Amino acid sequence: MILATIAALLLIVTALGIYGVAGERGRLRIVHQTIRSSRIPPGFDGVTIVQFSDTHLGPGYSVERLGKLADAVNSLRPDLVVFTGDLHDARRRDNIAKYDPSPQLARIEARLGKFAVYGNHDFGYERNLRSSGAFLSRGGFSVLINATRRITLPGGEFITVSGLDDYVLGKPNATKAVSRLDNERFNLLLVHEPDVADRLIRYPIDLQLSGHSHGGQVALPLLGPIVRTQLGSKYVGGLYRIGGRFRDKRPYLLYVNRGIGTTRIPVRFRCVPELTVFTLLRADD
Questions:
Q1: pLDDT above 70: residue 9
Q2: Which of 50, 73, 109, 213 is such that its CA lies 20 to 30 A from the CA of 136?
Q3: What's the Rg (C-alpha) of the chain?
Q4: Distance (Å, rounded) from C-alpha 44 to C-alpha 49?
Q5: pLDDT average, residue stretch 13-39
């Protein structure tokens, strides 16, 4: 009886492992979110933003699979596309050049632009950082390192998109990037690690987009996410409304994308890879 129980448990664990490696990692979930704000200009009403994150290109996620992801992004016909870090997961012995994603990234279309920030894995080795920046640039993405850009329509209406350097291994400077943002404008922030939102609520940010956590990558029933990351353990996945001083009339929204690839272990369980589509709607706060 005991041996039969052990055998059954081993069979279940094996089946779940096979599903996590071969099944869930190959799926893609499209998540839709609506963002309403009185600071969204009339011309941006209905504008869509697609976020993807944490591709971790390398032995566990191929450039060919990234090509299919690009097709999925284009099928959504986004106005704006953002990538929130961790392009590669290649190790020292791997040849980064063979995971050149720039042709696939260049295929992604967005009439209002494509923007990106670095994640901690982009700093894994010096050549990772150089390669990630070059690949993103050749793919048509503007890499924001403690910088802000205006996204302007022909009539002059605009919103801003800011990007901060990675908080684990980079040199983030929020004061430089976002301290002078106009409080009356709609301001979007890209930063890899979600938990830094608690440090940033004093700035006039409407929506922070992050990745890093992979949604826990493995989320067990009752136990929840078990893969915890530095600055990615409090806010693990989905949409959060963060309160605090000065936030009564301006909600600070944080969205944590569950990512595309894997790290540490090549398994996802109850954390399906995700593309997120945000629709901006002008409305009273």
A1: no
A2: 213
A3: 19
A4: 11
A5: 72
Q: Buried b / exposed e across 157-183, counting CB within 10 Å, b at 16+?
A: ebbbbbbbbbbbebebebeebbeebee
- What single-letter amino acid sits at 203? Y
> pLDDT (tens digit, 9 = 90+) per residue, 220-239?
886 777 777 899 999 999 99
Q: What pLDDT score was predicted for residue 97?
A: 76
Q: Which two tokens stand for residue 65?
A: 């699979």
* Residues 6 or more apart in contact with residue 91 via CB below 8 angstroms: 58, 124
Q: Which of 83, 68, 78 is nearest to 142 (CA)?
A: 83
**Helix, strand, or coil (residue 15):** helix
> What is the amino acid identity at position 121?
H
Average pLDDT over residues 170-181: 96
Look up residue 187 and give its amino acid. N
Q: Which residues of 200-217 are buried (b: 16+ CB within 10 A; e: fewer)?
A: bbebbbbbbbbbbbbbbb
Q: Say yes or no to pLDDT of 280 above 90.
A: yes
Give the SS3 label for residue 34.
strand
> What contacts 138, CB < 8 A, 6 or more positions away?
102, 105, 106
Q: How far apart are CA 212 and CA 192, in angstroms?
A: 6
User: For residue 249, is pLDDT > 50?
Assistant: yes
Weakest mean pLDDT among 139-153, 161-175, 228-242: 228-242
Could you say which DSSP state residue 196 is in? G
> Domains in the chain, please, with CATH?
2-282 (3.60.21)
Six-digit token pair at 153? 């329509």
The answer to whether residues 231 and 200 touch, using CB atoms and an 8 Å cutoff, is: no
- State how far the Cα of 154 lies from the Cα of 7, in Å rounded to an integer: 66
